[in-house]
Design brief:
The protein has four helices and seven strands; from the N terminus they run βααβββαβαββ. By secondary structure, the protein is α+β, with helices and mostly antiparallel strands. The protein has a single domain, classed as 3-Layer(aba) Sandwich (Aminopeptidase), CATH 3.40.630.30.
Length: 163
Amino acid sequence: MAQDTSVRLRAANAGDAEGITRVFLASREAALPGLARVHSDEDTLAWITHVLLPGSRVWVAEGAAGELLGFASLDGDELDQLYLRPDTLRQGIGTRLLEQVKEASRGELSLYTFQRNTGARAFYERHGFVAVAYDDGGRNEEKEPDVLYRWTAAGRPVAARPE
């Protein structure tokens, strides 16, 4: 997988909210067809504008023409969001965003992803994340079974939790 050197990572700003929202919605639709839509597009934009951007460290990946290709957010020790435009998968953009988040972390991260999102699960496992707990969906708004992943910098053990 070759990385596109024309892609630039930068800190997100308030002006990125609409582009981030478009990427978020398109990515979820492509990866998880039939996933319950519990919020309108307008509510999703409001959440990104008023909660995600001011409350997390967020980075965006831009193409050569300045178009938003993906984003990632770090909230404490949680990789809270990592989404790519569906037409940009397997170009190294997700890896670059994940590396940015790992570098900004304190050496450990956790994240949740839906159990049926096999593409995301394979991606995280390739990048050193270990599944440590499974949930029946009772903890998320979509009521979709999910899995908790953990990553630690080299040499630090990942503590497993019972299922």
